[in-house]
Amino acid sequence: MDNENGLKQEKTKAKNRGAFKMTNEKLTKIFGIAIILFSAYLLIAFTSYFISWKEDQDKILKFSTNILFDNSITVKNWLGRLGALVSNAFIYWGFGVASILFVAVFFKLGLVVLFKKSKEKFYIFFTQIIYIVSFISVTLSFIFKNSEFSWGGAFGSSVNIWLVNFLGNIGMFLLLLFLVVTVLVWYFNPKFESMHFSLGDMNLKFPVVFFKNGVDVKSIFRKSFDSREESDTDFDEVSNKINEEEHKNGVIDLDFENKDKANNEIQNNELDSKLDMEIENESELDAESEKMILEGNNNQVNSDLIPKDDFDTIK
């Protein structure tokens, strides 16, 4: 009896564990779907805020959260009073226009929860988005500091005011420029080799940028030309010349004017050669036709009108 009771208890525990796992899995899926739908909700609310912020902002700032419970207040936001309040919290009191990137954060979080993807990658993605949102918020607040619309939000405005008072406008501009250059160097790793652009009398030199995956600007230009004119043999000759120069000097020389001239000369030479071939073919056909006429009409030639020597030659 004791053994039978023990087996029954173990079976009931196993069933309960299975039911809990099923319930937990269902809740996880529901939670992931809810987060994805919330990202769509934010996208609609933010978009509507950009259109109707002038009409709704005074009401939201005046009544704050009481706007949710006062039915006499009407707003223009597509998602009603709640949408106006949420979008105002993210954009006006948050990071401004850059807050729209949080839509991508919540959408990716929903996918991670729903499909049980790697959380570490999401943490890296979230950290990068926070840096980008902060930088865009401060930059837009510096550029549009006299605008009525809150481009950088409360965060960008407060940080911008403090930095301008500390560094000045010129120092703030140089700081933002330094941050942009730092990001470009960190993510694209430019190699400071000479890259020539010939525009008539003006020659410009820029660094060659190598991306993380090893793709460089040289290959980008080469692929763009190949995709534009795959069947053009003229470009193959020009690209071979470019490759030879790259191997020799490690330098790209994109002289578009000279390339156009070279292509035009090659095309003209090809046309001339085709015309010469057609003329030669026509002359050969004419000669053969004259031969055939002479051979075919040989017996009908009037011997009285042709000298004897010439007549013997024709025979």
Give the helices and strands as they follow along the chain: HHHHHEEHHEHH
User: What strand order characterises the main sheet?
Assistant: 2-1-3
Radius of gyration: 39 Å
From the spread of the alpha carbons, the general shape counts as extended
Give the distance, in angstroms, between the N- and C-terminal Cα atoms. 132 Å
Mean pLDDT equals 74
Proportion of helical residues: over 70%
Strand-pairing-aware structural class: mainly alpha
Poorly predicted residue ranges:
213-218, 250-257, 293-306
Number of separate helices: 9
Residue share in β-strands: 5-15%
**What is the oligomeric state here?**
single chain
Question: How many β-strand runs?
Answer: 3
Largest sheet: 3 strands, mixed
General description of the model:
The protein has 315 residues and is mainly alpha-helical. 73% of the residues lie in helices and 7% in strands. The chain contains nine helices and three strands, in the order H-H-H-H-H-E-E-H-H-E-H-H. A hairpin with a 2-residue loop joins strand 1 and strand 2. Helix 1 crosses helix 2, helix 1 packs antiparallel against helix 3 and helix 3 runs antiparallel to helix 4.
Task: Summarize the structure in short.
This protein has 315 residues and is mostly helical. It contains 9 helices and 3 strands, in the order H-H-H-H-H-E-E-H-H-E-H-H. It has a 3-stranded mixed sheet.
What topology emerges from the helices and strands here?
Elements: H1 2-63, H2 80-95, H3 101-115, H4 119-143, H5 153-188, E1 190-199, E2 202-209, H6 217-228, H7 233-249, E3 252-254, H8 256-296, H9 308-314
Helix pairs in contact: 1-2, 1-3, 2-5, 3-4, 4-5
